[in-house]
Every structure is written in structure tokens, then in C-alpha cells.
């Protein structure tokens, strides 16, 4: 298997790549008259400063407590509370493209893991985190300003929702509305679930100018030169396409698929008897619009399901060097997913937090 952590070497910056701002001398922190630090006056001033810090820092917490009042902090939080999707997309988009994920607070470690892998492909700047709770909104924007937005109404307090639960359905059913909004703003959109890891740059595989690109969720092995059309329906009368990795161009066809996805979710709501999730509705939307929309199935060797990548060692060896995005599905449970990533050397946050735009969270 190819080395998972192989990256292009960073170019070394010259020593003066980040020179001091010429405005630094004009901020007025120091008087115009030179004062010797080791003179009597300088030593007294230094001692007084140390006393003040010793008295007030324990009460104010971090250093910013000396300079920012609670009112200022509240204004900062209000700024992100009022941040719109249009503003956020305009901030992060590069060449008209946005990479989107939707995250609630329990999944912040997965977000960080995913971001490390994207940063290794130099695409992190176009990532937009759609926060599903205010804790996530503030945490991401505190660490990485401008890269998270919350689209009201926020769902109830989040937990690590189990696949098939009503909470999971409520969480995922908001997705096509977010994607449709971005398309209507004129952006191409790549959507990922955050239980994914990038091993290579997926944009090289978005051939042509199709409306919607997607991956097969089946574990059955396809030939390397398999067709890129929508596969035939399975036993339930629909296809088994994954709704967790999608690329959309801002075309009439892509918008039509998103609208149909929204309609299908409304027609098939969650119930205790039928524990729906968003993926069957996405497949029905693809099946019902296939004749009107230009669809493209991405190569299986590059975008395997978790049921194939983690359960078929022979196939993994035969396709060594071809894998692009690995999806940790075909397993449920927060801790089980982390363990599986660790077992395969894909849980990057243990040793590589510094590579994430969020740092350690």
C-alpha cells in the first residue's frame, strides 16, 4: 500500500518572508524618548508591569482578558451568529468551488482528521464547515475565522447520533437544502462526510462537465474500466449510490437533483417502523432524474466504499496506488470508526494536529 503520509515538500520561505509591519513603530506603545531598560527608571517600570500582571492575570484568565471585555467577546460571537451562507461561501471559494461538510460538536475530532488529509492536498482554504450547533460554529471560527457557518434553525443539542436514528435523519436531511443554496449562488460544490480521509487530490478525477459526480456504495468489485453511468437498480428497485461524497456543478441538472432529493425526503420521513436516512432518498432522486441530468459515477478504485477498502485486502493490494478518498462506512459507532482508522494508519490527529487549520481541538 502506498505511504499514506507522503506529501509534496513545502518550499522553504526566505528568512524575511514575513517582515515586521512598518506600522509597528507607529502604534504608540513606546515614548519617543529612548529609555534604557537597565537604567533605574526602566527597571522600576518593568517591576511595576510584572506586579500588575501577577495581580490581574489570575483573575482575567488568558492574556486577551486584559484587552477584551466580555461585551467585545459577545460582539465577536454575534458576528458569527449572523454570518450568512452567501458571505461564508464568498470568503472560502476558490475558482468558484467550495468544499463542504456538515458537523456537530461530537464529530469535531473527525473534522480535524479530515482537514489534515485535505491540507496535505493543499485544498483546505476552500473548506466550509456547516455547523449544526452553535458550539461548533464558535469553536471553528475561533480557531479558523470565517470557515464555519450555521444555517438556522439549529437542530437540538447534538450527540453522536447513531446511523438510522431520528437524530441522524434530522441531521442529514438538511444537507440537500444547503447544497442547493450554494448551487443557486453559482458555486461548484464538493460535499464530504467527515469520516473520510483524502490520500490524493480528487479534483483530478472530475473529468468532463457533468452535472453530478458520485460514488458507488457497494462492496462488490467492479472492473477497473467500469462504466461511469448510473448503475442498474438493486433488489429494492433503486441504486446504491453513496450520498456522502458528491460533486455538483451549478447547472440546471444538478439543481434538479437536489430539489428532487428534498422532495423524496419529505415523502419518506423518519418513523420508528421505517428508520429512514438521507441516502435512499438521494438514490431515488438520481433514478427519477437520470434521463434529464448528466450523471457520472467516479472510479471505484479511487473512491472505494468502506465495505470494500477495509474488508478486501486482496483488492486493496491489487489497486495499490490508486486510492484517493477512503470512506469509513460499513461500520457504526463513534469509537469503532476511530479504532478502525487507527488500525489502518488513517487516524491522523494523534500525531499530526499541527497540520490542521484548527490545530489541536
Topology:
Elements: H1 40-60, H2 70-81, H3 85-92, E1 97-103, H4 108-119, E2 127-131, H5 134-143, E3 148-150, H6 166-172, H7 175-184, E4 188-192, E5 196-198, E6 212-216, E7 241-248, H8 252-267, H9 278-289, E8 295-297, H10 306-309, H11 313-318, E9 325-327, H12 334-343
Parallel strand pairs: 1-2, 1-4, 2-3, 6-8
Antiparallel strand pairs: 4-7, 5-9, 6-7
InterPro entries: Nucl-diP-sugar_transferase, Nucleotide-diphossugar_trans, UDP-D-xylose:L-fucose_XylT
Membrane topology: Single-pass type II membrane protein
Organism: Phoenix dactylifera
Short description:
It comes from Phoenix dactylifera. The chain is an alpha/beta fold. It contains twelve helices and nine strands.
Tell me the Rg in angstroms: 25 Å
Strands in their spatial order, largest beta sheet: 3-2-1-4-7-6-8
Taken from the alpha-carbon principal axes, the silhouette is globular
**Could you state the order of secondary-structure elements as H and E?**
HHHEHEHEHHEEEEHHEHHEH
- Briefly note the structural class of the backbone: alpha/beta
Amino acid at each position: 500500500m502506498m505511504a499514506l503520509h507522503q506529501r509534496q515538500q513545502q518550499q522553504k520561505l526566505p528568512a524575511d518572508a514575513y517582515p515586521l509591519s512598518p506600522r509597528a513603530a507607529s502604534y504608540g506603545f513606546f515614548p519617543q524618548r529612548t529609555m534604557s531598560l537597565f537604567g533605574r527608571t526602566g527597571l522600576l517600570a518593568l517591576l511595576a508591569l510584572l506586579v500588575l500582571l501577577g495581580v490581574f492575570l489570575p483573575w482575567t484568565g488568558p492574556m486577551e482578558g486584559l484587552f477584551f471585555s466580555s461585551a467585545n467577546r459577545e460582539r465577536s460571537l454575534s458576528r458569527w451568529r449572523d454570518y450568512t451562507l452567501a458571505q461564508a461561501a464568498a470568503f472560502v471559494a476558490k475558482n468558484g468551488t467550495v468544499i463542504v461538510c456538515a458537523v456537530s460538536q461530537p464529530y469535531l475530532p473527525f473534522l480535524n482528521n479530515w482537514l489534515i488529509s485535505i491540507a496535505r492536498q493543499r485544498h483546505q482554504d476552500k473548506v466550509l464547515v456547516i455547523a449544526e450547533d452553535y458550539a461548533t460554529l464558535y469553536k471553528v471560527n475561533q480557531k479558523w475565522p470565517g470557515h464555519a457557518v450555521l444555517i438556522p434553525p439549529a437542530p437540538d443539542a447534538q450527540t453522536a447520533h447513531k446511523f438510522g436514528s431520528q437524530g441522524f435523519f434530522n441531521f442529514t436531511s438538511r444537507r440537500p437544502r444547503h447544497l442547493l443554496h450554494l448551487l443557486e449562488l453559482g458555486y461548484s460544490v464538493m460535499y464530504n462526510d467527515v469520516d473520510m480521509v483524502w490520500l490524493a487530490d480528487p479534483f483530478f478525477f472530475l473529468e468532463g462537465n457533468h452535472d453530478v459526480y458520485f460514488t458507488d456504495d457497494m462492496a462488490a468489485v467492479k472492473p477497473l474500466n467500469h462504466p461511469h453511468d448510473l448503475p442498474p437498480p438493486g433488489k429494492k428497485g433503486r441504486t446504491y449510490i453513496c450520498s456522502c461524497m458528491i460533486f455538483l456543478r451549478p447547472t440546471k441538472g444538478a439543481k434538479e437533483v437536489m430539489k428532487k432529493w428534498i422532495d423524496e425526503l419529505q415523502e419518506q420521513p423518519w418513523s420508528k417502523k421505517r428508520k429512514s436516512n438521507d441516502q435512499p432518498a438521494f438514490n431515488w432522486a438520481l433514478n427519477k432524474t437520470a434521463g434529464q441530468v448528466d450523471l457520472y459515477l467516479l472510479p471505484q478504485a479511487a473512491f472505494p466504499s468502506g465495505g470494500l477498502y477495509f474488508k478486501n485486502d486482496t483488492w486493496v493490494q491489487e489497486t495499490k496506488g490508486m486510492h484517493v478518498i477512503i470512506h469509513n462506512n460499513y461500520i457504526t459507532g463513534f469509537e469503532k470508526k476511530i479504532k478502525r482508522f487507527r488500525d489502518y494508519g488513517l487516524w491522523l490527529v494523534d500525531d499530526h494536529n499541527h497540520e490542521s487549520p484548527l490545530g489541536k481541538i
